[in-house]
Hints:
By secondary structure, this protein is of the alpha/beta class. It has two domains: 259 residues, 3-Layer(aba) Sandwich (Aminopeptidase); 70 residues, CATH 2.40.50.100. 20% of the residues lie in helices and 29% in strands. The strands form two sheets. It has a 15-stranded mixed beta sheet that branches. A four-stranded antiparallel beta sheet has the order 16-15-13-18, with no helix packed on it. Helix 1 crosses helix 6. 47% of the residues are buried. The model has no long low-confidence stretch (mean pLDDT 95).
Amino acid sequence: MPSIVHDFHQIDFESPGKRHYQVAFHLDGTWGYSLVPLTVVRGHRPAAPGASGVAAFGGTHGNEWEGQIAVKRLCRDLQPDMLSGLVVLIPQLSESACAANRRISPLDNVNMNRAFPGNPKGTVSSRIAHFVKTQVFPRVGVIADLHSGGVEGGFALCTSIHPVPDLKQRAEMLAAAQLFDTPFILFYSSQMASGLLTDEAEADGKIAVGGEFGYGETVNRFGVAHAYQGVLNLLRRYGLLDGEIQKVDSNRPGSPRIVSAPNLEDYVPCPDSGIWEPCVDLGQDVKAGEVIGFLHDFGDPTSEPVEIRAHRAGVLIMMHAPAQCVKGVTLYVIAQDYRQPD
C-alpha cells in the first residue's frame, strides 16, 4: 500500500529503490485530504554523466484518461534494477478532478493547468502546483505532461510543445517530442492561457513536452501506447534506461509531421451558439476557404446552417468535439507545416 505523507520531507527521492506515496493536501472547507498518488523510482545503477531525471504527469485534467493510464502502468512496470537516475510519476495530479471525471477540481473550481507556479497558502489545487514546482521540478530535467481533449476539443493525435525563444532548448524539446512517435507534433501558442505546467517547466529551463492522446472522455488505445512508450523512450534518450529508441506506430513509416499554430488568430472562436456539424476529419489537410463544417440554429428549423470555412490552408489539428457549441469557444485550429528558425 502507498504510504500517506503529510510532510513533503517524508518523500524519499534519493535512496535507490521504488516507493509509492499518497501525498496528503488538506481540504479547504472541511476535515480531510486530497490524496495525490506519487511514485518515486531511483535506479540501482549509477546515473550516467549528464543524465537527467524524468517526471511524467497524468490527470492534470481529470477527464483525460490516456495519460493517467499510461503513467499508472509505468508506476507498476518500472523497477529500480532497470534504471539509473530518478523517475517521478504522478498519474493523477488533480486527484479530485480525476475522481469527479471533470476538467477542473470540484474542491476549488480551479483548473490545475492554470494553477502554476502555485501558492503554498492557496487553495488545494494551488498548493499541489506549488508542491510540483518546488519539490519535483528541481529534481528532474525532463517533464512530460500527458493530456487529451476531454470533452472540450478533439485533437489529431499529437505531442505538443511551445516555440520557446531559447533555440537550443526548443530543439531539444522537439527531439523529445519526436520520441512519442505521434502522427503530429504541434507547436502551439503560449498566449492562450497562463499558469500551465509546461510553461512553468520551460521557464525553469526544463525539457517540457505535452501531448494530446485522445478525446471524448474515452480511452484511446493508440494514445495510451504512444504516451507509455514515449516516456520509456525519454528514459532511453536521457540515460536512465538501456536499449534503443522504440517506434510506436509500425504502420507509419515516416517521422511525425511537425506543424505549427503559434498565434492567437490560429484558434478560431465559434461565431455564435449552435450545433456543430463537421465536414472534415481531424488530421486532414484543408484549403483556404474550404467548408469544414456547419453551425445549426434549431431555434428556427427552417434556417440555413452557417457555413464555417477554413481561414487558411493547412492541417485541421483541433476541432470542437461536442455537437453543442457555445459562442466564443475555440471551434477549430488549422496548423501549418513548421519551418525551422534560421
